[in-house]
């Protein structure tokens, strides 16, 4: 059942994104930023954790999950370090994922030769 929930949750988030691309004048970049912002806001309101509990990876892998991760990091850091945590918590929480993305992107760039589009 966890796989089905993850599929449904991620699928619904993708459908919303596709509808925003097709039916609104918003650019994909604005939609991506909106997804991260929505994840932060919903997490701050305490609503996104319920979605994570139900949808698992379907809620944490999309960009809304990145916003949720940032909000959780800030909340934890503020509880530990006070106001300074508001400035450092998000980057500390997301550092592992960002580092992995940069590292693996670099490795792939070394292994494969880019080809121009025809």
TrEMBL record:
Domain of life: Bacteria
Statement: the UniProt record of this protein carries the keyword Signal: no
InterPro entries: Spore_V_AE, SpoVA
KW Transit peptide (keyword) present: no
Keywords: Membrane, Transmembrane, Transmembrane helix
Record-annotated membrane-spanning stretches: 6-21, 33-51, 93-112
PANTHER family: STAGE V SPORULATION PROTEIN AC-RELATED, STAGE V SPORULATION PROTEIN AEB
Protein name according to UniProt: Stage V sporulation protein AE
Taxonomic source organism: Flintibacter hominis
